[in-house]
Amino acid sequence: MRLVLIGPPGAGKGTQAAILSQRLGIPHISTGDLFREHVTRQTPLGQDAKRYLDTGELVPDHVTGGMVRQRLAEPDARCGFLLDGFPRTVPQARELAAILDCAGAALDAVVEFTAPEDIVVERLLNRGRPDDTEDVIRHRQRVYERQTAPLLDHYADILLTVQAVGPIDEIAGRALSGLSEAARGPAPHPRRAP
Ligand code: AMP
Questions:
Q1: What is the pTM assigned to this prediction?
Q2: 56 in contact with ligand 1, CB cutoff 6 A
Q3: I need a surface site. Which of 38, 71, 88, 153 has the fewest CB within 10 A?
Q4: Domains of the chain listed by start with CATH number
């Protein structure tokens, strides 16, 4: 299964991605984690990306797209993956479609996690990552609304929206049952009586 998770920072995508990837047996690919690994290892890409991560801006599409293209070419992602944090812009979505097209593949579903802004800001303040100061958090919310929310229309045909408030397991349960329903497709028309 090839999935994309979308949602404002703090909606719990990372937590849900870890559960869903384990339950569905597909690798969890988080662009935020990939960037943070590059920053820690002080690779040229990491040195370039650091200032964007520190301020909550998006790393330029060509840098992000190249990194994802490379990750998706690894053998564990051949039959399925769960992308967390990518795509975050419409051009990134086009790049992903191009990568998948070349492999004769397509996305199965895009799962959107939603939660009220006050709840997500509070969750992030409690998480305590270096880029989790209140200013940067609020800025990331605005970046999400401006640059990422348009993807919801872009993916309207395969979008599954999940309310991300409540116990973690319940949220995961909602996502998994929505996905299996979507996989079954629309209910068949009732057969006409002979
Ligand atoms: P996240 O861990 O998903 O909250 O991402 C942390 C930071 O990594 C973001 O604030 C961006 O600076 C950067 N980042 C992650 N994914 C992307 C992406 N798809 N496009 C551009 N920047 C990204």
A1: 0.93
A2: yes
A3: 153
A4: 2-30+79-192 (3.40.50.300)
